[in-house]
Task: structure prediction
Amino acid sequence: MIYFAAFLVFVGLIVCVTGRTLFATTPFLGGFLVSGMLGYQVGMMFIPIPANWPNWVLPLVSFILIGIIGGIVAKGLYVVMLVIAGMALGAFIGLVAGYVINLGGSPHVLTSNFFSFQPENAVQLYTMLIAMALLGGLSLTAQDTMAMLSTAFFGAGIAAVNLADLFDATVGGRVAAVATEPVLVIFAWLFIGMAGVFIQNNNDNID
Result:
């Protein structure tokens, strides 16, 4: 799982800084990477790993299978893939917003479920659904802007969470405790996402 987490950090950063270009020039690759990351997350959330399987098999299979489906969809139906990317960003935003609303903004209670990307209460579920609907709808009306924002911040979220997991698995101790602090992870997500938007905006010669 350490190697797969490192792979997801790399893929997340690639999507973060080149997402709009990927969708515009090589939609299959863009759809494959974004959908693959979603497939990995969904697989880890809802599908139990069989006892006789190595723990990396299910994430890898989920990434590849859902990635291929997403790549095919992106190649034929670009707008659909764009809406999915917007909804993925909305899920990230709603996840954090739900905790802030329901738990008074205490950073320490974010830890256990922030990394698993799962709603644990009705408030959080509703904020995720609302944010997904809003950003999915915006993806239809502001396609170019949302392609940039959704890929930058979704890729940044995947990279930040898995980077924290890497620190936790490989370093340990005080460094890992700091690296996995939810406030720091959220800050890293926002910082990397804004950097991705800046880079993508400066590489807009595809328009």
Remarks:
- Residues 8 and 159 are 6 Å apart (CA to CA).
- The radius of gyration is 16 Å.
- Confidence is low (pLDDT under 50) at residues 105-115.
